Amino acid sequence: MRAPNRCAPTRRARQIDALARILATIGDSVQNLRSNVSRVQGDMRGEFRQVNQQLLQIQELTGQSQRRLQDLRAEMELRNSQPAAPPPVTSPVTGDTTAAVAPAPAAPGPAQLLSLGKQQYAQRSYGAARTAFEELLRTHATSDLAPEAQLYIGECYAAEGNAAAADAAYNTVVAKYPMSPKAPNALYKLALSQAKQGKRTEARTFMERVVREYPQSDEAELADAWLKSNR
User: Fold this and answer.
1) Which end of the chain is more exposed for a tag (fewer CB within 10 A), N or C?
2) Domain containing 119: what range?
3) In a domain, 194, yes or no
């Protein structure tokens, strides 16, 4: 009669134990990989937030400088629109001196209208602000301030909750003034508006346009960060 092979179970047990150790090692490696991926993703999100904050700070500083320049232009326009009083006129017959009639003041210039519109916007008088911006576009259509006035019209509508009108105004900036520094800002705001309305596909399309058409703009960095975090 053949004796039972007592080595077989022992060998099998060693094989099972070895396999268990391999599986445990693989599990640890997968867990470590997941941890590393999570850490990298967290670092990337943190870097994106830092980049966005830095870009916003740069935009704020740039905006302050631009606002100061516009205020100076508005002051100059105001002074130029107030003509000096003419000298008195002496009658050659009677010798009486009478004051000459001063000419009517000139119409406000584009910087004045833009400044007025911004003041009304800051006071949340969006209808009055929009009127000033629209007057700038009507009377000074070729001014270099026209794109900003059009952009602010969109901001007024957005503040009033009229997303459709705001989007149309933003789109007008891009279509009518594509080379203006305000164009990438308008396109980025249009993309954000679409995202806020839940139109993710349209938002992504506009963000991609910002990156593609205005790659050197600050908004391109913001749009790229948005695209990476909204895949």
Assistant:
1) N
2) 14-75+108-229
3) yes
